[in-house]
TrEMBL record:
Domain of life, source organism: Eukaryota
Region of interest (Disordered), ranges: 17-66, 1079-1342
The name this protein goes by in its record: PPM-type phosphatase domain-containing protein
Gene Ontology molecular functions: metal ion binding
Biased composition annotated in UniProt, kind: Basic and acidic residues: 1195-1210, 1328-1342
Regions of compositional bias (Polar residues) in chain numbering: 53-66, 1088-1098
Biased amino acid composition, Basic residues: 26-35
Residues in PPM-type phosphatase domain copies: 814-1064
Cellular component, GO annotation: cytoplasm
Keywords of this entry: Leucine-rich repeat, Metal-binding, Repeat
Length: 1342
């Protein structure tokens, strides 16, 4: 193999070798002074330069970044690499044309656009790029080549006849784009490089750079020190992987290299030479290199790392994910190599090419070889000559057949062929007597291969993912009617996702593990003689026979079936430890099961169990889950007989009481977690809880508690989490101070009128007292050090001093949302709530779930609104704008979306005016979702699904996944990553996983009451019908969202949760033929005449300003620069004028906070929200009453108080702006000072929602829906002073005669202009008085 290839594989560059770098740059600096910049690209060598020098690139690209001449030169070169208008015009004139953005192999920061057609080959593109670089600084190899990289992963070399533009178009089509013109347009976007990227030359960052641990230029001597022949010489030394590589300094990449394997060798310190180490290899032909270091620090670092490598004794090499196209030549000289990992490369059979797989020699003593996920289309025959091989992994290739020579590998014990295209097996495979594990999952088998009859030693057989449904009888015949002992030795049988309807494997007497999940089984018969594990979830089982009674059975999973009773053999199994019966049709649980001496975990939720045995015998249960049944009582001696019980969940039943913890107060109970949410418990159950002295988690939400006895609470000293939400409590006992370990108190949706002394607890982190009747809050002088959230929203009697109460007309929709952190207090969800989106008659709501990552949800939250607004502006077909939003967002995620992903659900309300005589609705709700975030509409009291979840259970999705050679693992996840086939991010799984959403459109009617959006964890615990029924009678949207999250937590969800509830009030008179009238002209300069705040100059579709409809401010914990340099940004290059940002500790008024009005220049109107709405009037016949604001029959004032430890209020540099919005005569407008933000992200735009303006979205949120602002101290509660007087009917009286000075805060620089405008009406008033004296009618006050 050529030496240059080896250099790329091991990446023999040195960041510290300045000698060769400076000398090389010194010569080039005189020839190409103009091209010394960061954006310089490689070029072909000049004719006067030798081929050796031409092929020698700079050892590292890092010094070039410090040699930029100036910023103007840098920007000029960047500009030359961008598409011009004439280029785009040429491309868009023909669908067969396009543009490739080709990145440089050494400095890939800015790609070079290359115009081509679908017939242009890779060789032509490479020659074109090579020819355009004649004057560039850096040189390339003599043979130009084009490389392809997908989703930032491995890089493969394109063949000369491959067509890059066609590859690009096919990738975008598989991603989900259907319109060929849109495919062409997306291909011209340089940001597409985070998904698919073309390189001119193999990039330096690929091929093992992460394996280089140490590198530098030192004095090196080979051989013995006593011989005078050997002299010290300057050499490039690299410690890469497990080898020491010594090469020439001048020709570090192309010259001769000396590789010294260190495993099993020695690293010794030479004391007679200062800072000198001796490196020796192992084996009979060992070699020794002496290296002298300049400092003791380098000497010590090399000695420590090299000694660890030399001490290893495992003869293994890991070259996975190295973009290898052929084997490194060093492998052919490796001695005692036993384990070789070559997965995730581009290896294939290239006969006659050095380093090809057909050159593998039989001299190797390999025992394990992995070639999975390569590009093999044929089985390498050379592998059959390695007689020592015991494990061979060829999964994830494109093999369609196996050679007969495979039968000569008699020592082979494990053969993995999963994820190929096999449909038959050679008969010679039956001679592999040592074969014990055969993996044939996800191939093309339509029947069980007959050769399996001859594999007498086979113990583990995997046939998952092969469509055997049409040949069920053949499978049964094979297993039953073979009279000999064929296949009776099978121990582990995997038949997942095979489409089986009936299965009888009673003849497999040695069967220990059977996996038949996700089939269509209605009948299953298994031998229980040796059975240990049985997994048959997600079937249609009504009958399950296991005979004889399994004595060794420990784990049984029968969830998501149709069983009406528990089989007798389950109760008789003497060693059963885990039994999952969730989601069946059970009506009773046998007493033998509850009193089993071996059963430790019983899951029987979501059934129809009406009652249990009155009394139990002694039980060893530790986990008991009986939620979502019809239980009215529990066994009276449950806790006394099940003394090992640590977890009990009986939520969503009809319990009226609980059994006592013990027969006496001195009884002993180990119960740690008790969930009894959503029952009918009263105050009588409280004294029964005191016996559980070890209780850590107690959920009593949504019962009928009126008091919680103080003395009883004092005895629960170990309590850490207490949930009393949704009851009738008037107070929290002061004895809660006895619970010194308490970190979470949730008591929302009660009638609590006094703030508890919970802030005196040392471990308190989260306090949720929202939706109560608090009248005052007394905070200690020093807040708890660990306090993260204090939620006081939805307390109508809490008087907060705030001067900026806004008001407006009743709304058509109003929303509220809440979020709750999951494990390790990580909030991996985000909500988007924009009541006014691109206009007062549009709204946008969304929920995003990142599963275990926090980055993707916040990127979606902060960017998706902008992308949707852009798609609305550009979409030629309006029905496609939602799909295009999700597909474009995949690109906007940048490098963050390559290895991470998340679910998303988006709801967009639009106003479509209709003629007065038409009966169709004027508001439409368009919903799109990917992953497990879903939306549900309540129409006339019934749940209407707006979204769907795409999984491999759908035939179309399964076929699409299998078409792209993906596999489904045992946990039902595609390639072991996600269980959804459509999701945001995870671009490395494309095209098996795509971001193309499910889109639905409904017209809103007066029968529509509300709609819900929820994250993955919410819908795993609640069905759509159950969620709608739970909150339908909860009038307050915030309380409804809180209830959904509380229920999901009590039902066992430990992940992050998010719920958005949007109340609808659509009436017949909401629909009007005409658009809303234009607002009155604004005083002062810059009057707007457009009816749309963002009307375009040509009168087309209005385009919102940068960052409109989304949250622009990002917290310091989540900046775009931290995430990725390639994350797509929707911010404009021109920053909008600075705007005021209210503090997060604010007052929230339900109802309409004020319609967004057109603002000139940098005007800003302050709005406040929490559970707010803003979309216009119910009818154009109703005008807002001056000074009147309401929310139906009740008015609430809410406050969010968020506490951050160690934050100090910054001293903002304020400047004032002119208010240029005309308001009703009695309304009050307050101008807020703008704050200069040091963040590079632009401030809030006028199109932001009320949450965004008040600083609640886009921040790092805490548990249960509160958001902690990162920029300001939240230790202040403001109190209301001038609250209007409430009238009957839920309205307020406007102030009688408001002070004019309170209406407008005038900046000093505009005082003169305002004074002139105030004195101008004097003459006009005199004229009016004259007209009145003359008796004229229709006088107008100006």
């Amino acid at each position: 193999m050529p030496t240059a290839k080896t250099a790329n594989i091991y990446n023999l560059s040195s960041a510290n070798s300045s000698t060769s770098v400076n000398s090389l740059l010194g010569r080039r600096r005189q020839r190409h002074k103009r091209n010394l910049s960061l954006g310089a690209s490689p070029s072909t060598g000049s004719p006067g330069v030798s081929s050796t020098e031409t092929a020698s690139p700079a050892p590292t690209a890092s010094p070039l970044s410090t040699l930029s001449l100036d910023r103007k030169t840098f920007l000029r070169q960047k500009q030359t690499k961008q598409l011009q208008v004439s280029d785009k015009t040429w491309v868009r004139s023909d669908l067969r044309r396009g543009c490739l953005h080709v990145h440089d192999w050494l400095t890939p920061s800015y790609p070079r656009p290359v115009l081509c057609t679908v017939d242009t080959t890779a060789q032509e593109v490479a020659l074109k790029v090579s020819g355009s670089k004649s004057g560039a600084l850096l040189r390339i190899t003599p043979t130009p080549a084009l490389f392809l990289q997908l989703h930032g992963g491995a890089v493969r070399r394109l063949e000369d006849d491959e067509k890059p533009l066609q590859i690009l178009n096919e990738y975008l089509t598989n991603l989900g784009f259907e319109d060929p013109w849109r495919v062409q347009d997306e291909g011209m976007n340089p940001e597409i490089g985070c998904l698919i990227r073309f390189y001119f030359g193999k990039p330096r960052s690929v091929g093992g750079s992460e394996r280089v641990q140490l590198s530098g230029v030192f004095n090196v001597r080979k051989g013995k020190l006593a011989l005078p022949v050997n002299r010290w010489s300057k050499r490039q030394v690299t410690l890469s992987g497990t080898c020491l590589i010594v090469s020439s300094v001048k020709h570090a990449h192309t010259g001769k290299m000396h590789i010294l394997p260190l495993i099993g060798g020695k690293v010794e310190e030479i004391k007679r030479h200062s800072h000198c180490l001796a490196f020796s290899s192992a084996g009979p032909q060992n070699q020794t290199y002496y290296i002298s270091y300049e400092s003791y620090t380098e000497h010590l670092r090399w000695h420590r790392i090299a000694s660890k490598i030399a001490s290893q004794r495992v003869n293994s090499v890991d070259l996975s994910c190295c973009s290898l196209e052929e084997l490194p030549t060093q492998l052919f000289y490796s001695q005692d190599l036993t384990h070789l990992n070559l997965k995730n490369n581009f290896l294939s059979l290239r006969k006659g090419v050095p380093g090809s797989l057909d050159q593998i020699t039989h001299d190797w003593s390999l025992r394990s070889l992995s070639l999975s996920n390569n590009t093999l289309t044929e089985f390498p025959l050379a592998l059959c000559d390695i007689t020592s091989l015991t494990e061979l992994n060829l999964s994830g290739n494109q093999l369609s057949s196996l050679p007969p020579e495979l039968g000569s590998m008699h020592n082979l014990q494990t053969l993995l062929l999963d994820g190929n295209c096999l449909s038959t097996l050679p008969i010679e495979l039956g001679s592999l007597d040592s074969l014990t594990y055969l993996g044939l999952s996800f191939n093309g088998f339509s029947s069980v291969p007959p050769v399996l009859e001859k594999l007498r030693g086979l113990e583990r057989l995997c046939l998952a993912g092969n469509q055997l449904s049409v040949l069920d009888t053949c499978l049964i015949v094979l297993f039953i009617y073979c009279n000999t002992e064929q296949l009776v030795h099978i121990v582990h049988l995997d038949l997942r996702d095979t489409g089986l309807r009936d299965l009888d494997v009673r003849c497999l007497s040695r069967l220990e593990v059977l996996r038949c999940d996700r089939n269509c089984l209605s009948l299953l018969r298994v031998s229980g003689q040796a059975l240990k594990n049985l997994h048959a979830a997600h079937n249609d089982l009504k009958q399950l026979d296991v005979a004889p009674v399994p004595e060794n059975l420990t784990v049984v999973d029968l969830s998501w079936n149709m069983l009406c009773s528990v089989p007798d053999w389950v109760c008789e199994s003497g060693r059963l430890e885990v039994l999952d019966l969730n989601h069946n049709c059970l009506t009773e649980l046998p007493i033998q099961l509850l009193s089993s001496g071996s059963l430790r975990k019983l899951l029987s939720g979501w059934n129809n169990v009406g009652r249990l045995a009155e009394r139990l015998e002694r039980s060893q249960l530790e986990v008991l889950d009986l939620q979502h049944n019809h239980l009215t009582e529990l066994p009276s001696n449950l806790f006394t007989k099940a003394q090992s019980l640590r977890y009990l969940n009986v939520s969503a039943n009809k319990l009226e009481s609980l059994p006592p913890a013990s027969l006496s107060e001195d009884g002993f109970s180990l119960l740690e977690e008790l969930y009894v949410t959503n029952n009918c418990l009263t105050d009588k159950c409280v004294p029964l809880l005191t016996g559980h002295s070890h209780l850590r988690v107690l959920h009593l939400a949504y019962n009928q508690l009126q008091t919680f006895t103080a003395s009883k609470l004092a005895r629960l000293e170990q309590l850490e989490e207490l949930d009393l939400s949704g009851n009738r409590l008037r107070s929290v006992p002061t004895t809660i101070l006895s619970c010194q370990r308490l970190h979470t108190l949730s008591a929302h949706s009660n009638g609590i009128n006094a703030f508890p002394e919970v802030l005196q607890l040392p471990e308190i982190k989260c306090v949720d007292l929202s939706c109560n009747e608090l009248t005052e809050v007394s905070l200690p002088e020093t807040l708890p050090a660990k306090l993260q959230e204090l939620d006081l929203t939805g307390n109508p009697r809490l008087n907060l001093d705030h001067k900026s109460l806004d008001h407006g007309a009743p709304s058509v929709w109003s929303h509220s949302y809440t979020e709750a952190s999951g494990v390790k207090n990580k909030l991996c969800v985000a909500a988007l709530a924009l009541d006014s989106f691109c206009g007062i008659r549009e709204a946008l709501y969304g929920v995003f779930d990142g599963d275990k990552n926090v980055d993707i949800p916040y990127l979606l939250q902060c960017t998706m609104g902008d992308v949707l607004a852009e798609e609305l502006h550009r979409a030629q077909r309006q029905e496609d704008y939602m799909t295009s939003t999700f597909l474009t967002m995949q690109r906007k995620l940048g490098t963050a979306g390559q290895r991470m992903g998340g679910s998303a659900a988006l709801c967009h309300i639009r106003h479509d005016p209709v003629a007065p005589g038409e009966h169709s609705g004027c508001f439409t709700l368009k919903t799109a979702n990917v992953g497990r975030c879903q939306a549900v509409l309540c129409r006339d009291g019934k749940a209407m699904q707006l979204s769907t979840v795409h999984t491999v259970k759908e035939e179309v999705e399964y076929q699409r996944v299998r078409q792209h050679n993906a596999i489904i693992t045992e946990d039902n996840k595609v390639s072991g990553v996600t269980d959804c086939t459509r999701i945001m991010g995870y671009s490395f799984l494309c095209p098996s996983i795509t971001p193309r959403p499910h889109v639905s459109t409904v017209t809103l009617t007066p029968q529509d009451e509300f709609f819900l959006l929820g994250s993955r964890g919410l819908w795993e615990m609640l069905s759509p019908t159950e969620a709608v029924e739970a909150v339908r009678n909860v009038p307050d949207a915030l309380a409804a969202a809180k209830k959904l999250v509380t229920l999901a937590q009590s039902y066992g969800c430990a992940d992050s949760l998010s719920a958005v509830v949007v109340r609808l009030s659509v009436t017949e008179d909401c629909c009007c033929f005409c658009e809303p009238p234009p607002p009155p002209p604004s005083p002062g300069p810059g009057v707007h005449t457009s009816t749309h705040p963002y009307q375009t100059s040509d009168g087309g579709i209005p385009l919102p300003p940068p960052s409109s409809g989304t949250v622009s401010e990002l917290s310091s914990e989540l900046s775009m620069s931290e995430m990725s340099s390639e994350v797509g940004s929707t911010a404009s290059s021109e920053d909008p004028p600075p705007q005021a940002e209210p503090t997060a500790a604010h007052l929230n008024l339900p109802g309409r906070p004020g319609a967004r009005r057109p603002a000139a220049g940098g005007s800003f109107q302050r709005q406040f929200s929490g559970a707010l709405s803003d979309n216009g009037l119910d009818s154009e016949d109703e005008e807002p009453i001056a000074g009147v604001f309401s929310n139906g029959s009740r008015v609430e004032v809410e406050a969010d108080v968020h506490c951050l430890n160690g934050r100090e209020r910054p001293s903002p540099q304020t400047n004032f702006q002119t208010q240029q919005t005309t308001t009703p005569p009695s309304s009050t407008v307050y101008q807020e000072p703008a704050q200069a933000s040091p963040s590079p992200v632009p401030p809030s735009s006028p199109c932001l929602s009320t949450e965004a303006r008040s600083g609640t979205l886009g921040r790092r949120a805490r548990a249960n829906g509160s958001v902690a602002c990162q920029a300001r101290s939240q230790d202040v509660i403001e109190e209301a002073g001038d609250a209007p007087v409430r009238k009957q009917g839920g309205y307020f009286n406007a102030p009688a005669q408001p002070d004019p000075d309170d209406q407008l805060i005038i900046p000093p620089e505009l005082e003169e202009e305002v004074e002139q405008k105030q004195t101008a009406p004097t003459s006009s008033t005199a004229e009016e008085e004259g007209r009145k004296r003359k008796g004229e009618e229709g006088a107008v006050l100006r």
